[in-house]
Write a structure and sequence with these properties.
Blueprint (H helix, E strand, L loop, with lengths): L1 H22 L2 E16 L11 E11 L4 E17 L4 E18 L2 E2 L8 E2 L1 E13 L9 E13 L4 E12 L4 H5 L23 E16 L3 H11 L1
Parallel strand pairs: 5-6
Antiparallel strand pairs: 1-2, 1-10, 2-3, 3-4, 4-7, 7-8, 8-9, 9-10
Length: 235
Amino acid sequence: MIIKRIKLIVIITICILSTEVLAQEKYKADLGILGGESFYLGDANKKLFNNMQVTFGGFLRYKINPRFAIKLELANTSIKGNFIGIDTTAYLNKSVNTGEIISEFNFFDFERNKNNRNAKILSPYIFAGLGGITGMYPSQIIPEICIPFGVGLKFKMAERINLQLQWSSKLMLNDNLEEKINPTKKTKLNNFGGLNGTNALNNDLLSSLTIGVSVDFWKKPCDCRNNSYTKRSNK
Protein backbone atom coordinates (compact mmCIF):
# COMPACT_ATOMS: atom_id res chain seq x y z
CA MET A 1 0.00 0.00 0.00
CA ILE A 2 2.81 2.40 0.89
CA ILE A 3 4.67 1.53 -2.31
CA LYS A 4 1.57 2.30 -4.38
CA ARG A 5 1.21 5.67 -2.66
CA ILE A 6 4.88 6.46 -3.31
CA LYS A 7 4.43 5.53 -6.98
CA LEU A 8 1.33 7.73 -7.17
CA ILE A 9 3.19 10.68 -5.60
CA VAL A 10 6.11 10.21 -8.02
CA ILE A 11 3.73 10.11 -11.00
CA ILE A 12 1.90 13.25 -9.86
CA THR A 13 5.21 15.04 -9.27
CA ILE A 14 6.44 14.13 -12.75
CA CYS A 15 3.21 15.39 -14.29
CA ILE A 16 3.47 18.70 -12.42
CA LEU A 17 7.11 19.15 -13.44
CA SER A 18 6.29 18.27 -17.04
CA THR A 19 3.51 20.86 -17.10
CA GLU A 20 5.88 23.47 -15.66
CA VAL A 21 8.50 22.71 -18.30
CA LEU A 22 5.95 22.92 -21.11
CA ALA A 23 4.80 26.28 -19.79
CA GLN A 24 8.39 27.55 -20.02
CA GLU A 25 9.00 26.42 -23.57
CA LYS A 26 10.78 29.02 -25.67
CA TYR A 27 11.50 29.18 -29.37
CA LYS A 28 14.54 30.42 -31.23
CA ALA A 29 12.79 31.71 -34.35
CA ASP A 30 9.49 32.69 -35.93
CA LEU A 31 8.22 32.69 -39.51
CA GLY A 32 5.56 35.09 -40.74
CA ILE A 33 3.78 37.02 -43.47
CA LEU A 34 3.06 40.75 -43.74
CA GLY A 35 0.89 43.08 -45.74
CA GLY A 36 0.06 46.77 -45.94
CA GLU A 37 0.73 49.86 -48.02
CA SER A 38 3.80 51.81 -49.05
CA PHE A 39 4.71 55.02 -50.83
CA TYR A 40 7.77 56.44 -52.55
CA LEU A 41 9.12 59.83 -51.48
CA GLY A 42 11.72 61.52 -53.66
CA ASP A 43 12.24 63.39 -56.91
CA ALA A 44 9.15 61.86 -58.53
CA ASN A 45 6.89 62.28 -55.51
CA LYS A 46 7.32 64.96 -52.86
CA LYS A 47 4.11 64.46 -50.85
CA LEU A 48 3.84 62.17 -47.82
CA PHE A 49 1.37 59.28 -48.20
CA ASN A 50 0.81 60.14 -51.88
CA ASN A 51 0.34 57.31 -54.42
CA MET A 52 -0.02 54.59 -51.78
CA GLN A 53 0.65 51.10 -53.14
CA VAL A 54 -0.06 47.59 -51.86
CA THR A 55 2.90 45.79 -50.31
CA PHE A 56 3.16 42.17 -49.18
CA GLY A 57 5.88 39.71 -48.20
CA GLY A 58 7.28 37.43 -45.55
CA PHE A 59 9.98 37.30 -42.91
CA LEU A 60 12.13 34.94 -40.89
CA ARG A 61 13.35 36.11 -37.48
CA TYR A 62 16.04 34.55 -35.27
CA LYS A 63 15.75 35.49 -31.61
CA ILE A 64 19.14 35.99 -29.98
CA ASN A 65 17.45 36.73 -26.65
CA PRO A 66 14.16 38.35 -25.52
CA ARG A 67 15.54 41.80 -26.42
CA PHE A 68 17.55 41.28 -29.64
CA ALA A 69 16.71 39.54 -32.92
CA ILE A 70 18.00 39.27 -36.50
CA LYS A 71 15.36 39.31 -39.25
CA LEU A 72 15.38 38.51 -42.97
CA GLU A 73 12.49 40.21 -44.75
CA LEU A 74 11.39 39.94 -48.40
CA ALA A 75 8.59 42.05 -49.88
CA ASN A 76 7.03 43.27 -53.12
CA THR A 77 5.56 46.71 -53.74
CA SER A 78 5.38 49.47 -56.36
CA ILE A 79 7.12 52.81 -56.79
CA LYS A 80 4.67 55.30 -58.26
CA GLY A 81 4.97 59.00 -59.07
CA ASN A 82 5.66 61.53 -61.81
CA PHE A 83 8.24 64.20 -62.45
CA ILE A 84 8.50 67.17 -64.79
CA GLY A 85 11.36 67.13 -67.27
CA ILE A 86 12.72 69.84 -69.48
CA ASP A 87 10.61 68.74 -72.44
CA THR A 88 8.14 66.21 -71.01
CA THR A 89 6.31 64.94 -67.97
CA ALA A 90 7.42 61.40 -67.21
CA TYR A 91 5.35 58.87 -65.28
CA LEU A 92 6.84 56.40 -62.83
CA ASN A 93 5.13 53.13 -61.90
CA LYS A 94 7.41 50.17 -61.21
CA SER A 95 6.86 46.93 -59.32
CA VAL A 96 9.94 46.28 -57.18
CA ASN A 97 11.19 43.58 -54.86
CA THR A 98 12.98 44.38 -51.62
CA GLY A 99 15.15 42.23 -49.40
CA GLU A 100 16.77 43.21 -46.15
CA ILE A 101 18.64 41.89 -43.15
CA ILE A 102 17.93 43.91 -40.05
CA SER A 103 18.67 43.91 -36.34
CA GLU A 104 15.76 44.45 -33.95
CA PHE A 105 15.79 45.73 -30.39
CA ASN A 106 12.76 45.19 -28.13
CA PHE A 107 12.27 47.69 -25.32
CA PHE A 108 10.97 44.89 -23.07
CA ASP A 109 11.67 41.16 -22.76
CA PHE A 110 9.21 40.00 -25.40
CA GLU A 111 8.04 36.57 -24.19
CA ARG A 112 5.46 34.74 -22.11
CA ASN A 113 7.42 33.76 -19.02
CA LYS A 114 5.83 34.02 -15.59
CA ASN A 115 9.24 33.50 -13.97
CA ASN A 116 10.63 36.65 -15.58
CA ARG A 117 9.17 39.81 -14.06
CA ASN A 118 10.51 41.83 -17.03
CA ALA A 119 8.67 39.67 -19.57
CA LYS A 120 5.95 41.48 -21.55
CA ILE A 121 3.51 40.29 -24.20
CA LEU A 122 3.48 43.81 -25.69
CA SER A 123 6.67 45.62 -26.64
CA PRO A 124 7.70 48.49 -28.93
CA TYR A 125 10.86 47.93 -30.97
CA ILE A 126 13.27 49.70 -33.29
CA PHE A 127 15.33 48.27 -36.13
CA ALA A 128 17.95 49.06 -38.77
CA GLY A 129 20.00 47.09 -41.26
CA LEU A 130 21.06 46.69 -44.88
CA GLY A 131 18.96 45.81 -47.91
CA GLY A 132 18.63 45.73 -51.67
CA ILE A 133 15.95 46.61 -54.25
CA THR A 134 15.48 44.89 -57.62
CA GLY A 135 13.15 45.51 -60.57
CA MET A 136 13.61 49.28 -60.61
CA TYR A 137 14.69 49.50 -64.26
CA PRO A 138 14.96 47.05 -67.20
CA SER A 139 18.76 46.83 -67.32
CA GLN A 140 19.22 46.27 -63.59
CA ILE A 141 21.44 43.30 -62.74
CA ILE A 142 22.76 44.08 -59.27
CA PRO A 143 20.30 45.14 -56.53
CA GLU A 144 20.40 48.80 -55.57
CA ILE A 145 21.61 49.13 -51.97
CA CYS A 146 19.29 50.67 -49.38
CA ILE A 147 19.32 51.22 -45.64
CA PRO A 148 16.11 50.06 -43.93
CA PHE A 149 15.14 51.46 -40.54
CA GLY A 150 11.99 52.03 -38.53
CA VAL A 151 9.85 51.31 -35.49
CA GLY A 152 7.20 48.79 -34.59
CA LEU A 153 4.99 47.22 -31.95
CA LYS A 154 4.86 43.49 -31.15
CA PHE A 155 2.05 41.64 -29.40
CA LYS A 156 2.12 37.98 -28.39
CA MET A 157 -1.44 36.83 -29.04
CA ALA A 158 -0.82 33.24 -27.91
CA GLU A 159 2.04 31.02 -26.79
CA ARG A 160 3.42 30.74 -30.33
CA ILE A 161 1.48 33.39 -32.29
CA ASN A 162 2.86 36.92 -32.68
CA LEU A 163 1.37 40.08 -34.17
CA GLN A 164 3.41 43.08 -35.31
CA LEU A 165 2.60 46.58 -36.54
CA GLN A 166 5.57 48.13 -38.32
CA TRP A 167 6.56 51.43 -39.92
CA SER A 168 9.58 50.98 -42.19
CA SER A 169 11.59 53.35 -44.39
CA LYS A 170 14.29 52.40 -46.89
CA LEU A 171 16.84 55.06 -47.74
CA MET A 172 17.94 54.60 -51.36
CA LEU A 173 21.66 55.24 -51.63
CA ASN A 174 21.53 55.73 -55.39
CA ASP A 175 19.54 58.77 -56.48
CA ASN A 176 19.80 57.89 -60.18
CA LEU A 177 16.56 55.86 -60.06
CA GLU A 178 14.42 58.06 -62.29
CA GLU A 179 17.23 58.71 -64.80
CA LYS A 180 17.74 54.97 -65.26
CA ILE A 181 14.00 54.44 -65.79
CA ASN A 182 13.77 57.27 -68.32
CA PRO A 183 17.30 57.60 -69.76
CA THR A 184 16.28 59.24 -73.07
CA LYS A 185 14.77 62.33 -71.45
CA LYS A 186 16.57 65.14 -69.67
CA THR A 187 14.86 65.54 -66.33
CA LYS A 188 15.34 67.78 -63.32
CA LEU A 189 15.91 64.99 -60.85
CA ASN A 190 18.91 65.98 -58.82
CA ASN A 191 18.76 67.34 -55.32
CA PHE A 192 19.58 71.00 -54.82
CA GLY A 193 23.15 71.84 -55.69
CA GLY A 194 23.13 69.43 -58.62
CA LEU A 195 24.39 66.56 -56.51
CA ASN A 196 23.39 63.00 -57.24
CA GLY A 197 24.27 59.45 -56.29
CA THR A 198 25.37 58.62 -52.75
CA ASN A 199 25.44 61.77 -50.68
CA ALA A 200 24.06 63.32 -47.51
CA LEU A 201 21.45 65.27 -49.50
CA ASN A 202 19.83 62.17 -50.98
CA ASN A 203 16.09 62.25 -50.31
CA ASP A 204 14.70 59.08 -51.94
CA LEU A 205 12.76 56.95 -49.47
CA LEU A 206 10.47 53.96 -49.82
CA SER A 207 8.25 53.84 -46.75
CA SER A 208 5.64 51.27 -45.71
CA LEU A 209 3.12 50.58 -42.96
CA THR A 210 2.46 46.86 -42.53
CA ILE A 211 0.81 44.33 -40.24
CA GLY A 212 2.44 40.93 -39.81
CA VAL A 213 1.58 37.61 -38.18
CA SER A 214 4.18 34.99 -37.29
CA VAL A 215 4.43 31.55 -35.70
CA ASP A 216 7.23 30.51 -33.33
CA PHE A 217 9.26 27.39 -34.12
CA TRP A 218 12.64 25.77 -33.35
CA LYS A 219 12.13 24.89 -29.70
CA LYS A 220 14.84 25.99 -27.27
CA PRO A 221 15.86 23.70 -24.38
CA CYS A 222 14.61 24.87 -21.01
CA ASP A 223 17.25 26.52 -18.83
CA CYS A 224 16.14 25.06 -15.50
CA ARG A 225 18.96 26.67 -13.55
CA ASN A 226 18.01 30.10 -14.84
CA ASN A 227 14.35 29.50 -13.97
CA SER A 228 15.28 28.45 -10.43
CA TYR A 229 17.43 31.54 -9.98
CA THR A 230 14.66 33.79 -11.33
CA LYS A 231 12.13 32.27 -8.94
CA ARG A 232 14.39 32.89 -5.93
CA SER A 233 15.16 36.46 -7.00
CA ASN A 234 11.42 37.25 -7.36
CA LYS A 235 10.58 36.13 -3.83
